[in-house]
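Form 7-S
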Amino acid sequence: MKSTFESLGIRQTIVETLAKYGIVEPSPIQEEAIPAALEGRDLFGQSQTGTGKTLAYLLPVLERIDASNKDLQAVVLAPTRELGVQIAAEIEKYGAPEGIRSLALIGGAAINRQIDRLKQHPHIIVGTPGRVAELIRLRKVKMHLVRTIVIDEADQMFALGGAKEAEEVVDRAMRDRQLLFFSATLPAEVRRMAGKWMREPLELNIDPEQRTAGGIEHIVFVCQERDKVDTLRRLVRLYDPKSSLAFVNDLDIIAEVAAKLQHAGLSADALYGDAPKQERTTLLAKFRTGKLRTLVATDVAARGLDIEGLTHVFHLQPALDADHYVHRAGRTGRMGRSGWSVSIVTEQEMFIIRKFEKQLGIVIRQKAMYKGKVVEPHEVRSGAERTGTKERTSGGRSGGAGDEARVSENRSGEKAEKREPAAERTSGVAQPASVGLQRRPAEGTSLRSATGGFRSLGAASLRNEREKSVPPRPAAAGKERAGERDRDRKNKGAPRWLKEKRDRDPST
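Output:
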């Protein structure tokens, strides 16, 4: 018998709100985490991306909030601004009908405005660890009544250096507070560090052997390094996804990749991790609404993003490791939907793909593009061989002395005449080769080659013909011209009176 949200302990009004958004059955991670979290236990929750981890911790948090009490009761920490805003929107969606107030405290936003909003006494705050810790130091956020602290994308938060601030937030809460750690990947070092803060945590690991969602198809295309962006362009045109992410590792090339896609007429833009909050918010809003179809980003910028209808993830550069690949690929194929994770690599980078296959227990199939379709690599080779065979066959039928003459003419127009067949074609009439060689064409005309084309006389030949037609100058005329040149040389730069004198009397 399948579980329901009601059977897991979620109140009816929240269940009805979930149904409005099409969520009627709990996912495996929700089924395991909700009852344990409602009991107040500390949790390590690990599951594939797109399996509903946000609601797995959010629903029990909302269930335990006392809306009649105006004190702060729960804190959710997220490693990035985008993820924090996303979580805050989920809290608003399911908590507002219950009278639960929430507030997002995101780094990069105006802190004075956030301080003003804290006067509304939110029951839950969602924020980045740095900003939340800063407001705690300013005594604007009071942690002494906080019962639950959630750390989402825990591995990324520790990797980005947020461990110190997160520890500061945890230390300011109640002694018997509850800690919930959730992520698709929880490395041993993260477990070790978080274990210092937790009391007998329950570890939930859904399908540990399957670290990526089952609905994702993993594909790889091989090309030269210089052709990667062009391959991405062709793949975007071929698949024509309504929404796709293109991942890169280097910040330096994000703008270049986005610009090249835009130049090709594609709807694309770049998402920077350090861009101003308003710029990022506007860009993501365009992406969510379909006004922007391809977003170029790094792992940090796109971590935790949940974009409705995102079908394709492109890896323009291989992920740094298997965990990063899991999070990248998890942007698609969410909640049982289908998706495509497409890697674009060089031959030298294929060993990374094979390593991911072994570590993640998946199959990444190599594909190729041929005549506007995605095909198996051997189909491209066989198609190329068939094309080559046709070209060789057609060349054999029309080959012969004429082809020899054509090739020699392309290399050297002068030598083409010597390698012509016995009869030369001139004006469409066959004549003996000796006649054609003895003829000298008039100036400005051209010779017709054996292939029916024309070969113009060279510049040197035309100059020789002109020189022969011009009679030689008398010696006296040459001396006269030399004298004029000598006078011009002497006059150069001289005053006018001296020039006039020299013109009147050439001997001066």
